[in-house]
């Protein structure tokens, strides 16, 4: 705590108290590598006070979230830790504003003083809402949280023109049946060089968490990625219908598995399901490892010809990346 509440930080908090912006600062509700969050009483409502750690915060792994972004095209001070912290706090404040203006559930940004960020408090009577990873979710609640998470990814990308870049159960709150997005300091513009790479990881994190909670009919990584990046903003039901309602005829190899295992079809059906799951897993792994270019200029023409000339399956695995890059129908 002493790394956070240094003399300069204490002075900032005292000024907030003296001006009446804050009536009282209570206990710490969250601690992290980069910041601590405190509960405070504001003039009219409860306030979350996020204080960035100025003396221990390092940005060695943060350059990839800033370099190449238009907002920091004139450069930023890497050698001055205090300026870096202030810049990071400003970045989070701006991102929260964009989320709030788009109607994305998140803490309302109230005020920024140097490296102290005041936000609306998600919780009640000093008790903070649990992170999604700690929330006691029933299957019905987990299913609702999954649908909300998919829609949040879509709204952040299309309405806010951002990619969270750390979208996981650790940075989502569960409060009164609603999923709230937090910790958006690392969020990048949708045209950031690594935006689609970050988005793919966000989708992967979301699917992985809800799969552990037994949510049925989850989409593949490629399906969720296509849903999020589709500029037509398809309804969630459309993606779910693709996952649960489509009927595909078995391939010749899959049919042969059924015939070889059991003529009655019971075990053969299980074998077909296993083969389908295996193919799906391979397809997901291929998409998870694919390089996702941001512009066509990044690709040699031979690679484009290879991607679209390698058969139907190759084109299917490549289509989501190209559709997202070009803004075409996913």
From TrEMBL:
Top EC group: transferase
Keyword Ribonucleoprotein set for record = no
Its subcellular locations are: Cytoplasm
Molecular functions (GO terms): ATP binding; hydrolase activity; metal ion binding; protein serine/threonine kinase activity
UniProt lists compositionally biased (Basic and acidic residues) regions at 308-317
Domain named RIO kinase is located at 2-230
Positions of the region Disordered?
Answer: 308-330
Q: Does the keyword Cell division apply?
A: no
Question: What cofactor does this one take?
Answer: Mg(2+)
Q: What is its EC number?
A: 2.7.11.1
Q: Which GO terms describe its biological process?
A: ribosome biogenesis
Catalytic reaction annotation = L-threonyl-[protein] + ATP = O-phospho-L-threonyl-[protein] + ADP + H(+); L-seryl-[protein] + ATP = O-phospho-L-seryl-[protein] + ADP + H(+)
The UniProt keywords, alphabetically, are: ATP-binding, Cytoplasm, Hydrolase, Kinase, Magnesium, Metal-binding, Nucleotide-binding, Ribosome biogenesis, Serine/threonine-protein kinase, Transferase
GO CC, sorted alphabetically, is:
cytoplasm
> Which CDD domains does the UniProt entry name for this protein?
RIO1_euk (cd05147)
Family recorded in the similarity comment: Belongs to the protein kinase superfamily. RIO-type Ser/Thr kinase family.
Protein name per Swiss-Prot or TrEMBL: Serine/threonine-protein kinase RIO1
Its source organism is Calcidiscus leptoporus
């Amino acid at each position: 705590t002493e790394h956070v509440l240094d003399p300069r930080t204490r002075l900032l908090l005292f000024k907030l108290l003296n001006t009446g912006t804050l009536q009282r600062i209570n206990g710490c509700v969250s601690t992290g590598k980069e910041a601590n969050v405190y509960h405070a009483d504001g003039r009219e409502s409860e306030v979350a006070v996020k204080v960035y750690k100025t003396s221990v915060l390092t940005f060695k792994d943060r350059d990839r979230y800033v370099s190449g972004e238009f907002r920091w095209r004139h450069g930023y001070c890497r050698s001055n830790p205090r300026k870096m912290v202030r810049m990071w706090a400003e970045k989070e404040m701006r991102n929260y504003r964009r989320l709030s203006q788009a109607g994305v559930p998140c803490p309302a940004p109230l005020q920024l003083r140097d490296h102290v960020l005041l936000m609306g408090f998600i919780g009640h009577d000093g008790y903070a809402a649990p992170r999604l990873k700690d929330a006691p979710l029933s299957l019905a609640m987990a299913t609702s949280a999954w649908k909300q998470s998919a829609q949040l990814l879509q709204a952040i990308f299309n309405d806010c023109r951002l990619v969270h870049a750390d979208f996981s159960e650790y940075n989502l709150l569960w409060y009164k049946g609603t999923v709230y997005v937090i910790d958006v300091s690392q969020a990048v513009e949708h045209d950031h060089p690594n935006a689609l790479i970050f988005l793919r990881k966000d989708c992967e994190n979301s699917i992985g968490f809800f799969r552990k909670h037994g949510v049925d009919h989850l989409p593949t990584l490629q399906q969720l990625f296509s849903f999020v990046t589709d500029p037509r903003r398809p309804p969630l039901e459309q993606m779910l219908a693709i996952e649960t309602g489509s009927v595909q005829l078995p391939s010749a190899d899959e049919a042969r598995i059924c015939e070889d295992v059991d003529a009655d079809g019971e075990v053969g059906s299980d074998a077909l399901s296993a083969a389908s799951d295996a193919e799906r897993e391979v397809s997901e792994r291929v998409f998870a490892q694919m390089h996702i270019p941001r512009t066509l200029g990044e690709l040699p023409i031979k690679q484009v010809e290879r991607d679209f000339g390698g058969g139907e399956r190759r084109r299917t695995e490549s289509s989501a990346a190209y559709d997202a890059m070009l803004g075409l129908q996913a």
